[in-house]
Amino acid sequence: MELSLVVFAVEGTPVDSQALILEGFAHAFAAVGRSTPPRRAVLNHLGLSLPEAATRAAKPPKPSRTAGMTVIPASLSPRQIHSAGSTQKRGKAA
């Protein structure tokens, strides 16, 4: 069998393309008057189609899942935890 075409994939490991991708995003966002998303926001969406990656990278980050949660010391017993929670629900300080 004779080969008439050989294709080498040079994206990824052999070529560090992150800098080029980040530069491309910065250029594209600047062209439409938008600020460039943070580096992590762009790189988190690599592998998606370009329109989908740009849309997701431009969205603000989701709030932390722990925002508004109360830290409970490990030294409290289950009864103390339950008691503190019910006191807070009535609007009193624990």
Report on the structure:
With about 90 residues, this protein is mostly helical. The chain contains four helices and no strands. The protein has helices at about 20-30, 40-45, 50-60, 80-90. The longest helix has 14 residues, at about 20-30. It is elongated and about 75 Å long.
Low-confidence stretches: none
What does the average pLDDT come to?
A: 74
- Number of β-strand runs: 0
Class of secondary structure makeup: mainly alpha
Tell me the major beta sheet. none
Q: Name the beta content range.
A: under 5%
Give the end-to-end Cα distance, rounded to a whole number of Å.
80 Å
Helix and strand run:
HHHH
Radius of gyration: 25 Å
Number of helices: 4
- What helical percentage do the residues reach? 40-55%
Shape: elongated
Keywords:
94 residues, 4 helices
